[in-house]
From TrEMBL, chain A:
PANTHER family: LSM1, U6 SNRNA-ASSOCIATED SM-LIKE PROTEIN LSM8
Subcellular location: Nucleus
Name of this protein: U6 snRNA-associated Sm-like protein LSm8
GO cellular component: spliceosomal complex; U4/U6 x U5 tri-snRNP complex; U6 snRNP
GN (gene name): LSM8
UniProt entry tagged with the keyword Ribosomal protein: no
Domain Sm: 2-78
GO MF term (any one): RNA binding
Record-linked Pfam families: LSM (PF01423)
Family, as annotated: Belongs to the snRNP Sm proteins family.
From TrEMBL, chain B:
GO CC annotations, alphabetized: spliceosomal complex
GO BP annotations, alphabetical order: mRNA splicing, via spliceosome
Native organism: Riccia sorocarpa
Sequence similarity: Belongs to the snRNP Sm proteins family.
Nucleus keyword on record: yes
InterPro entries for this protein: LSM_dom_sf (IPR010920), Sm (IPR047575), Sm_dom_euk/arc (IPR001163), U6_snRNA_Lsm2 (IPR016654)
PANTHER family: SNRNP CORE PROTEIN FAMILY MEMBER, U6 SNRNA-ASSOCIATED SM-LIKE PROTEIN LSM2
Functional note: Component of LSM protein complexes, which are involved in RNA processing.
Main localization of the protein described in the UniProt heading: nucleus
Domain Sm: 2-76
UniProt-recorded name of the protein: Sm-like protein LSM2
Keywords assigned by UniProt, alphabetized: mRNA processing, mRNA splicing, Nucleus, Ribonucleoprotein, RNA-binding, Spliceosome
Length: 98, 93
């Protein structure tokens, strides 16, 4: 039985991934498999803190193992450009507890 | 299989998915698969002030393994049909 929903529609789109350790990684989805392993191109990590604005760390071409994936969100570039990340303060996301 | 079929019946309804990292996302159920991975459309985070991390995301794929709860509309449950299906499933195993 093949997976009915895939991430097909998100291929070559900019996506925002939330990982199990509470990180937020933004990049272009190049590939995926049934285990939800992802290939993310041109990616960067967005680090949230309560003291300073969002810090963006450039990562490059990454494979993220499916075990570690929580949410894969389609990033709306328009909405994203309206955000002022340098003034956005927030608590970092909590890690996933099974 | 039972829950997979049950969720397929709920496609198009508004649900709130609470994840194991305490994040809660409300959206319209777009699709579900055999792993109970969930695709939501028109998403908004429940406590947006606390979790601005997904402000620019309106459609998302949630891996089944991180779901804690799926909050359903009160009229989303046909108890009798569910009971029958559960009994059938229990007999089968």
């Amino acid at each position: 039985m093949a997976s009915d929903i895939g991430l097909d529609s998100l291929i070559d789109q900019t996506i925002s991934v939330i990982t199990n350790d509470g990180r937020n990684i933004v990049g272009v989805l190049r590939g995926f498999d049934q285990a939800t392993n992802l290939i993310l191109d041109e990616c960067h990590e967005r680090v949230y803190s309560t003291k300073a604005g969002v810090e963006q760390l450039v990562l490059g071409l990454y494979i993220i193992r499916g075990d570690n994936i929580g949410v894969v969100g389609e990033l709306d570039e328009e909405l994203d450009s309206n955000l002022n990340l340098s003034s956005l303060c927030a608590h970092p996301l909590k890690p996933v507890v099974h | 299989m039972l829950f997979f079929s049950y969720f397929k019946e709920l496609v198009g309804k508004e649900v709130t998915v609470e994840l194991k990292n305490d994040l809660a996302i409300t959206g319209t159920l777009h699709s579900v698969d055999q792993y109970l991975n969930i695709k939501l459309e028109n998403t908004r985070v429940v406590d947006e002030a606390k979790y601005p991390h997904m402000l620019s995301v309106k459609n998302c794929f949630i891996r089944g393994s991180v779901v804690r709860y799926v909050q359903l509309p009160p009229d989303g449950v046909d108890v009798d049909i569910l009971h029958d299906a559960t009994r059938r499933e229990a007999r089968g195993t």
